[in-house]
Amino acid sequence: MIELIDVSKVYQIAGGTDVVALDDVSLTIKKGAIHGIVGQSGAGKSTLIRCLTALERPTSGSIIVNGQDMTALRGTALRQARRNIGMVFQQPNLLDNRTAGANVAYPLHIAKADKNKISRRVDELLDLVGLAGRGNSYPSQLSGGQQQRVGIARGMATNPPVLLCDEPTSALDAGSTAQILDLLRELRDTAGVTVIIITHEMGVVTEVCDSVTLLQRGQVVQNGTLDEVLADTDSPLSESLIPPPSVDDADVRPGTVLVDVAFTSQPGVPTGATVLNLIASLGADVTAGRFESVGSLQVGRLAVSVPQYHVESVVAELQRNDVSARRRSA
Questions:
Q1: Residue 269 predicted with pLDDT over 80
Q2: Which Gene3D superfamilies match (predicted)?
Q3: Which residue(s) pair with 4 in the sheet?
Q4: Phi and psi at residue 323, in whole multiples of 5°?
């Protein structure tokens, strides 16, 4: 459905200096997937969005969306191809002087759709996003979560096969966030739309995404299904998605150090009970822990208190039993 092939984007700034925003990015997103793209500020996420929608052209490489190379299109063909990508933004950016229904209808008017078709489509979409009967409400009469639902309906107006969401929940409270993520999942399941979520909220990724990509300095440093990423318990992305438990200094006994232990419940890997028994047999104590179910995996992360003289042998024994373990940095 979506494929980036060796995509680079280089900006030239005053003085002739080159700034590399995307560096040889290759990425495949399967049809019907919900794919998260994460990374710190400056990682290249915004540039990637602009290139995906052909608002910017990459310096090199190809971007295939729905079978079309966006980098090769011009004029009418490009405008038509852009309608295959719906957009949802951090702020809904609704037109304040238009009703919810008129906001949803706006892309259809631009596409010069038949008036009767527009009316039916607006009613259908408002019903789909849970706002049936609110078509005559103005944005000021809607909550933040409801406004974002209108934004999603507007993004789906032309029935695009791809929905690109840029920080769609970062301005919402926890309840509204859960509702929006449920809605995106429903759109994928019922309409078959491929959803790309650009986010800095790792909880969004673990809650709704099937796969995820980590960008750093314009490069893909990790990519895979959620199960694949979380199974690599030592990777930076896995630790970001499910961080080690925090421990107060006051809870660390004198003469001991903390060891971070991580494991997943999957074939060939010790279960939580096995790991806890092993830790106890080594004379170590669990100071804090967290267990989370994500997709088909259960992920455990523990902070283990180990006598300082004994730490190297404990870490080695845990690793020998296929359990991720390393001394926590000060």
A1: no
A2: P-loop containing nucleotide triphosphate hydrolases
A3: 27, 63
A4: -115, 130
In this prediction, residue 120 has a pLDDT band, given cuts at 50, 70 and 90, of: very high
The single residue listed with the structure tokens 């029935």 is 159
Task: Please tell me the distance from the alpha carbon of residue 105 to that of residue 123, in angstroms, as a whole number.
Answer: 10
211 three-class SS:
strand
DSSP symbols for 229-240: HHHSTTSHHHHH
Please, are residues 167 and 200 in contact by the beta-carbon 8 Å criterion?
Answer: yes
Asked if residue 215 lies in contact with residue 40, where contact means CB atoms within 8 angstroms, the answer is no
Spatial distance between the Cα atoms of 262 and 229, rounded to a whole number of angstroms: 13
Nearest C-alpha neighbor of 147 from the set 155, 329, 193: 155
Question: Which residue type, as a one-letter code, is found at position 51?
Answer: C
Amino acid found at 211: S
- 100-110 and 115-128 are packed helices; what angle lies between their axes, rounded to 10 degrees? 130
Beta bridge partners of residue 20, listed in sequence order = 10
Q: Which has the closest alpha carbon to 256: 297, 310, 216, 204?
A: 310
pLDDT in tens, 155-177: 999 999 999 999 999 889 999 99
CB contact at 8 A, 184 and 32: no
Instruction: Report DSSP state, residue 150.
Output: H
Please give the full DSSP string across 237-300, using - where no structure is assigned: HHHHHSPPPP--GGGS-TTEEEEEEEEE-STTS--HHHHHHHHHHTT-EEEEEEEEEETTEEEE
Are the CB atoms for 215 and 221 separated by under 8 Å?
A: yes
Specify which residues 10 forms β-bridges with.
20
- Domains (range + CATH), the chain: 2-236 (3.40.50.300), 242-327 (3.30.70.260)
Residue 192: which region, alpha, beta or left (left: phi > 0; alpha: psi -120 to 50)? Answer: left
In angstroms, the Cα distances linking 67 to 50, 80, 165, 267 are 19, 13, 21, 37
